[in-house]
């Protein structure tokens, strides 16, 4: 299928799902395709998320694209340059509701805005600003991970560390993907993993 994009208006795309569902991979894929199309792209991520790299958005599978880290959503508005056509924003759950008006302004100016982030917190509750972004977006994609307990499609992020914070920063080892049946709202011990050698199958 050839995606039909509008030519003379901005719009909002949202990529949501649990941890490990492939949100960042999909964001990077769309941004790279825009770059192949000679469009000026700018990518933003929250400064709080310094898990891998301050200057790039990095997926769990090590795909990468250069990015600017910002502390507040309003800084995105200030940083977007006049010739930019596409804006990508990762980990939107760290920006709070301020992001909603920022994204609206950018789309009204004629930009394509692609937002990626969690739609539920570790208890399975809707996680702002994602519900708002889903409501105002032209195009929404929900990714699913694989439940590490039973192998079903997973749309929940199981917390593994004890914390009352809504988001545990430095998430490596702090979450695993689980389905509705296997997820519990309280932290549990990590599911033992398999050694996977993708090149020997
Ligand atoms: P997200 O941004 O949604 O957290 P990423 O795009 O960073 O996800 O990473 C997705 C990649 O994570 C997958 O392509 C796969 O290589 C890896 N991965 C690790 N654990 C899982 C899992 N339980 N289900 C699916 N993918 C997983
Ligand atoms: Zn399961």
Describe the structure.
The strands form four sheets. Strands 5-2-6-7-1-8 form a six-stranded parallel sheet, sandwiched between helices. It has a two-stranded antiparallel sheet with strand order 3-4. It has a domain at 11-144: P-loop containing nucleotide triphosphate hydrolases (Rossmann fold), CATH 3.40.50.300. A hairpin with a 6-residue loop joins strand 9 and strand 10. It has helices at 23-36, 73-79, 98-108, 130-136; strands at residues 11-17, 41-46, 56-58, 64-66, 68-70, 86-89, 112-118, 139-143, 145-146, 153-154, 156-159, 175-178. The chain is of the alpha/beta class and 201 residues long. 19% of the residues lie in helices and 25% in strands.
Label this structure with key terms.
single chain, 201 residues, alpha/beta, Rossmann fold, six-stranded parallel sheet, two-stranded antiparallel ribbon, 4 helices, 12 strands, globular, binds adenosine-5'-diphosphate, binds zinc ion
Number of strands: 12
Q: Describe the strand arrangement of the main beta sheet, using strand numbers.
A: 5-2-6-7-1-8
Which range does the strand content fall in? 15-25%
CATH topology of the domain at 11-144: Rossmann fold
Q: Could you tell me the radius of gyration in angstroms? A: 17 Å
- Report the top-level CATH class of the domain at 11-144: Alpha Beta
Task: Name the ligand types.
Answer: adenosine-5'-diphosphate, zinc ion
Looking at the overall shape, the CATH architecture of the domain at 11-144 is: 3-Layer(aba) Sandwich
Count of helical stretches: 4
Order of helices and strands: EHEEEEHEHEHEEEEE
CATH superfamily of the domain at 11-144: P-loop containing nucleotide triphosphate hydrolases
Query: In one word, what is the shape?
Result: globular
Structural category is alpha/beta
């Amino acid at each position: 299928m050839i995606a039909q994009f509008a030519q003379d208006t901005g719009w909002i795309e949202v990529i949501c799902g649990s941890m490990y569902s492939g949100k960042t991979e999909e964001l990077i894929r769309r941004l790279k395709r825009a770059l192949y199309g000679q469009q000026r792209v700018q990518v933003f991520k929250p400064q709080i998320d310094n898990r891998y790299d301050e200057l790039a958005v990095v997926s769990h599978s090590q795909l990468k694209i250069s990015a600017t880290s910002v502390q507040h959503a309003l800084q995105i508005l200030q940083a977007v340059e006049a010739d930019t056509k596409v804006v990508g924003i990762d980990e939107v759950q760290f920006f709070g509701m301020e992001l909603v008006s920022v994204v609206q302004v950018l789309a009204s100016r004629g930009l394509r805005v692609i937002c990626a982030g969690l739609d539920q917190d570790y208890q399975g509750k809707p996680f702002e600003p994602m519900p708002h972004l889903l409501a105002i977006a032209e195009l929404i994609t929900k990714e699913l991970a694989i439940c590490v307990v039973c192998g079903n499609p997973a749309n929940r992020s199981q917390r593994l560390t004890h914390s009352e914070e809504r988001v545990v920063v430095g998430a490596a080892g702090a979450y695993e993907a689980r389905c509705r049946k296997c997820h519990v709202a309280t932290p549990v011990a990590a599911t033992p993993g398999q050694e996977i050698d993708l090149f020997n199958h």
